[in-house]
Amino acid sequence: SPNIYNAFGLLFLQLDPDNTGFIAVENFTSLVEHHELQLDPSKLDMLLALVQSNEEGQVCYQELIELMSSKRSSSFRRAIANGRRTLQREILLDETGLGLYKRFVRYVAYEILPCETDRRWYFHQNRLCPPPVFIAIVTIVQIIVFMCYGIMLNKWVLQTYQPDFMKSPLVYHPGHRAQVWRFFSYMFMHVGLEQLGFNALLQLMIGVPLEMVHGILRISLLYMAGVLAGSLTVSITDMRAPVVGGSGGVYALCSAHLANVVMNWAGMRCPYKLLRMILALVCMSSEVGRAVWLRFSPPLPSSGPQPSFMAHLSGAVVGISMGLLILRSYEESLQKQCSWWVIVFSFITFLLFAIFWNIFAYELLGVQIPPPP
Fold first, then answer.
1. Is-catalytic flag, 176?
2. How far apart are CA 157 and CA 140, in angstroms?
3. Alpha-carbon torsion 65, 66, 68, 73, what sign?
4. pLDDT tens digit string along 136-192?
5. What letter would DSSP give residue 207?
6. pTM for the full predicted model
7. Catalytic residue (choose from 190, 214, 257, 312)
8. Does 312 participate in catalysis according to the annotation?
9. 243 phi and psi angles, rounded to 5 deg
């Protein structure tokens, strides 16, 4: 709270009469060990870890305020990286007497985070506000839209073979590519119950825990980047095909999480991780295979090309690049990382190229677009 920060600042200034913004490590250690402020145990651990990791013999006041306010900063990462030297408490799994919600938070921490210190920090810092609403809202809207079209068409599988389905203002169709919203809105439409069920299950099982740990802003950015990359990739590589389904966003989330698990295999403590990894890869590959089959060998006569599968692949690329960096940067500022700006620049370059392609390439290449429904 502000009162704690003010009181802590006054104590700090007593040891820094010249107002330099720094005090000696020895003085700060004494301050932390004998303070009477009500700090979270995890914050106290991080303060001591920050002291132990300091090699210059001085502690910066601004870094302490950033750490106490849970602001993503380099000081947090330094404290985390060196915190094992001073954190002697039992691991999070050994804590008893937890309520149902805190047990779920602990489960999420072990599902998503590879470092025990990160897991403990998240466990103690977690709050119900703001709740992980983005993935839940997207899923609910997708189900409502599917139910509406299912009732209207009286068809619950292979809805894309119905002409009225393809007339929806939400479907991306190359003949309507000037309607920019379709590059995003196609994520609310699905081929059938099987695609909706697969996407909804994956984005709830993986997306909600990711949003709880990394926040709504980062996970919504990753999901929507996968969705946009999906439709743009289809407009470049499969120029005559429409697109439906949220697979671009779903595969961005899943690929990022799976890549993070593989790269931090030894630190991940989620149970049966090898079996679950194999099962996830088999399910994702099967979904791509089903999409390829529907694209090139449609089981029913249709009036035009069936939806493309390229959104799945481009979503996976977004997840492995942008998504992996986001998941590896827990409580770190992305803006201060050079690799983040490289990825952002690459994505913007791809976006500009795709816009140019959609404006000029169809006419230059003489692509015969099926008439829009």
1. no
2. 19
3. negative
4. 999 999 999 999 999 999 888 888 888 888 889 999 999 899 999 999 999 999 999
5. I
6. 0.80
7. 312
8. yes
9. -140, 135
